[in-house]
Amino acid sequence: MIEDHAKDFYQLTPDEVLDALESVDLEPQAALLALNSYENRVYQFRDYQEQKYVVKFYRPHRWSDQQILEEHEFSLQLAESEIPVVAPLQIGGETLFKFDNFRFAVFENKGGRTPNLDDEDTLIWLGRFIGRIHMLGEASAYQSRPTLTWENFARDSVDYLIRENFIPAHIQESYQTTANLIVEYCSAAFENFGPLNLLRLHGDCHPSNVMWTDDGPHFVDFDDSRMGPAVQDLWMLVTETENRHQWNLLLEGYEDFREFDDRELTLVEPLRAMRMLHYSAWLARRWTDPSFQFNFPWFNTTRYWEEQVLALKEQQALLQPKHFI
After folding, report:
1. Known catalytic residue at 221
2. Architecture of domain 14-108
3. Where do the TM regions start and end (predicted)?
4. 120-318 belongs to CATH 3.40.50.11030
5. Domain map of the chain by residue range?
6. Of 8, 221, 223, 233, which is the active-site residue?
């Protein structure tokens, strides 16, 4: 059954946002600035002390309160260890707040630019901080947040797209055949690897979730944090599939703080394939939300799905065991 998200944020008007902020004694002095966030609703504002903040309203029904609080706790632990993450603010000893039908959290606004991944020092610096994140991340495990698996990122995604008839009829067989082969490759890759060392991850560590300043990086948006292998937080920071030099630099910094199991590099292409499938399914699951149809007009077109078939076939060719280093 297609998920109905048409009314997830229907009642989140500007006045509702302001009232929610006032409920935790925050009062914006100027207009709210909506930021680019599709899964949640995120606004930047400035208070009368000229302090900039960001407020995040969580999409209803995605995470339980306990799952959100687990992520908050991890972020706070990282911040307390002087690891540069943007953790939720504690107001009255709480980080998760409720107003009417919405749950929200408030963060200090920290700007920056995306990191230059072609710069050697930048990669080493990033590796060091991710190593520190993972060192703390493996100190304990999430109890309620999910684990990254080929089943929930690949198998479930393909099943949803086929079941809900998102794939045009004339390419459904081609898409299904290719996608199912990729799922089999991903399954085999994880099975052949054996037991994984799972730890709490950022979960979605791509360049746009790393803000860079002259003082170095700070990591934002732990909304997709989950248990998984360390390599998940590294591979999206390498700009080319088999760029040995970039991997060497990233891992040079990483291993200043935590040993990396080089065998996990065999999971890079399966993880990339899983992300491709999961991204299409994520858009499909949210397609009843009007903001998705406005911001992603190219999705669910014949051209999109035809290009997906080609992209998946190209990715299938890369799904062979490889050691990059």
Report:
1. yes
2. 2-Layer Sandwich (3.30)
3. none
4. no
5. 14-108, 120-318
6. 221
